[in-house]
Amino acid sequence: MKSLILASVFTLSLAQAFAQDYPTLTSNARAAIAKNDYSTAVQQFELAFKLKSTNYGDLYDAACVAALAGNKDRAFQWLEESIAQGWTNFDHLSTDTDLVSLHNEARWGQLTGKLKLKLAELEKNYDQKLKAQLERIFIDDQSLRQQLDPTQKKYGFNSPEMNKLWDEIHTKDEANLREVEQILKEHGWLGSKEVGPRASQTIFLVIQHASAETRLKYIPMMRQAVKDKKANSANLALMLDRINTESGVKQIYGSQLRGKVEGGYELYEIEDPEHLDQRRAEMGLDPIASYIKRWDLTWDLTKYKEEMAAYDRAQVFQVADLEALSKRLWRGELKYLDYSKNVWTSIPSNLRISRSEHDPQTWLWSYGYDDEPHANAKDGLRLSTDGKTLGEEKVLSRTFIQKGAIRIVTTMAGKDDGRDAEFRFTYTIDKDSFERKKEVKLKGADDYFVRHIYSWKG
């Protein structure tokens, strides 16, 4: 059976079940499966499919449960419907131990024969060379990662064995990315109809496992692929959340978790938790309560909203942050996107920050450019008494990252090359280095792009 998302819920009466929505009913079914209560799971799936029966994954899972419950007629019905809705994984179907009770039925041979014919028809249109290449990359991507859990359990999270395995994974990821980027350059995002489901999924996996810059580069292409039904909307949600958490801002779909120092896991901060499940449903994701149950977490919306309110109050730019940057000369470079040539350019840069003698809340930023002194500039940024704004920038987050460095993310509205835009600034402050990155999201656009990055040492 496909991996199931488990949630602990009480079995509801039939009248209550009819009043529930599709995600809740399928979640109830999976909760019953966790208790080996297959008859109740079948009942919940039946109620769910009266509302909607187009999700081939849910139909397949339901067929497995029906087979385990001894309801062969229902099992074959749901398998037929699953295949009709898009299930194409013949290898999984033929080896799934949950379906063994069906193998002696004449209908089994008819069902598998029908799926073989469907696959043969679909594969006529596949690019077999690209399919083989991507499926090889899929194996490369997954084989080493499948060793992570047993290696961690045997040697420990920070063991030399784990570090060596991660080094091997990163090396393989870089090689895989080179191949996938060439495929994207020559063919665009390839969907299931072009190379098959697994090969198409490989493109997402390789980009998801690449650098943050790579994900930002390809997220617009993936958005279009979802619109063209060549990529999965749930995968898009995972990538968008990962981009947000890496950028130091709240996630949208609640897919990303982090380990806690004291053990266990917690969700990264979530934007607008009130409407989280609505957004998740739109992307084909299960309710958040069902999703986080696999990490032994429970969802309490009221409590979470209180936690987010406290989190928001704590996100400030501190005077100490600016004092750490002042009284020294920072030297480095400015890398920026030259719109006229659409190329990245870098020039030497220096920065000195000092506190205004006339207004202790104002900090003076003096930028110098050795090769272009005519571009030297000064800027006065006033820090609000509550630390929530620096100049016109509103503070979104303040986070301690690796080895004691601090990352502060701010946002403001403005114009970029004459166009209305939203700006996002990321300040990364370390003992001997300082970076300020500016990202731009033009009005009407979905995503940010990097406009420039100052990198200094002092």
Automatic annotation (TrEMBL):
Keyword terms: Signal
Pfam families the UniProt entry points to: DUF6624
Span of the signal peptide: 1-19
Identify the domain of life. Bacteria
Which InterPro entries does this UniProt record tie to the protein? DUF6624
Spell out the protein name for this chain.
Tetratricopeptide repeat protein
Protein's organism = Undibacterium cyanobacteriorum
